[in-house]
Amino acid sequence: MKQSYFRCITLLVCLAIAVLLSSCGASGQKAGGPKKIRIGFAMDALKQERWQKDRDLFLKRAEELGAEVSLQTADGSDEAQMKQVESLLSQGIDVLVIVPHNAEVAGAMVDMAKKQNVPVISYDRLVKNSAPDLYVSFDNERVGELEAKLLLDRAPTGNYVLIGGAPTDNNSLLLRKGQENILQPAIDRGDIKIVANQWAKEWLAEDALNHVENALTQNNNNITAVVTSNDGTAGGAIQALAKQGLAGKVLVSGQDAELAALQRILAGTQTMTVYKPISKLAPAAVEAAIALAKGEKLNITRSVNNGRIDVPSILIEPIPIDKNNVDVVINDGFQKREDVYRNAPPKSP
User: Fold this and answer.
1) Residue spans of beta strands (DSSP E) within 188-329
2) Straight-line distance from the first to the last Cα atom of the chain, in angstroms, rounded to the nearest whole number
3) Which residue in 192, 240, 313, 336 is a FRET match for 342, CA 20 to 30 A apart?
4) Contacts of 199 (CB under 8 A, 6+ apart)
């Protein structure tokens, strides 16, 4: 009798354990539920306001679609990014999304992922000389064209300074190509003269400041426009101009629609920025990552050559912003009205 009793208790305990185990799956999944897609997101850095927004929007969309994201940030270090990608791959991610610090160095990271049959998306910045499955970005050559065109329309003659971004970032090269597409005919006609042509290491504002200071010294402050490639370097350029009492008198371009840049545009010290609707970019990357992880085919109509292959691409159209259409950025939810207009001069009656 006692043996039957204990056998009964043992059986009930085993059944309880089995039920408990069957109710739990990997990553907290219910039994029989779909496996969560695991996305490895390897970012270069988060110092700039723009990249913090990319991160937040990316994570939000992934959560909405039930995907897990393992996020790593390299803080501008090739070595750190390589180790982080190795770590992500060792965790068994289903797809890798990478914002490369160095377009060339990151090619080895793509190759490493592909050897493990992990699909790769090159996010915003194109990884060179490798075979990523997809490039999701904005038309960066078009961004450069927009930066140069608005300045040239307002100042069709004079001395121009070009300040590019990090030379290790392929986007910097695409931006410069777009700027030259617009400026070269005016250069050939002799309407404008490029008196300085520099690159800002790591997109540093202080590097741009130094380059513009040197250009002002070498040209006796005779500068008409400074084509800077993003809002951070625009801020550095404007600091240099302000020291000479030229802020607001010399045209300055930028991109990313950062809060400080929009405030400078309203104050009159920065001429324009280019808004890249990240609210479209980050979700598109997440949706594509999930599709690739599932082995689904993407509907791609464009490609960009990275030195090895024509990379299938999703390219989103950028929008030029000046003081006349700042509200585009606000209405899109990218910046808050009260922040943008906080220090704006009162409108004339």
Assistant:
1) 192-199, 225-228, 251-252, 273-275, 302-305, 310-316, 319-321
2) 99
3) 240
4) 163, 164, 165, 166, 167, 172
The highest-confidence range among 27-36, 43-52, 214-223, 290-299, by mean pLDDT, is 214-223
Same topology for domains 38-132+277-317 and 140-276+320-340, yes or no? yes
Residue 347, pLDDT score: 64
Q: Which fold has domain 38-132+277-317?
A: Rossmann fold (3.40.50)
Report the DSSP beta bridge partners of residue 162: 197, 227
Q: What is the pLDDT of residues 123-153, one digit of tens each?
A: 999 999 999 999 999 999 999 999 999 999 9
Of 344, 337, 346, which Cα lies nearest the Cα of 267? Answer: 344
**Contact assessment for residue 150 and residue 272, using Cβ atoms and an 8 Å cutoff:** yes
Read off the amino acid at residue 29. Q
Domain boundaries, the chain: 38-132+277-317, 140-276+320-340
**Backbone torsions φ then ψ of 134, nearest 5 degrees:** -160, 145
Q: Which H or E element spans position 162?
A: strand 158-164
Average pLDDT on 336-349 reads 81
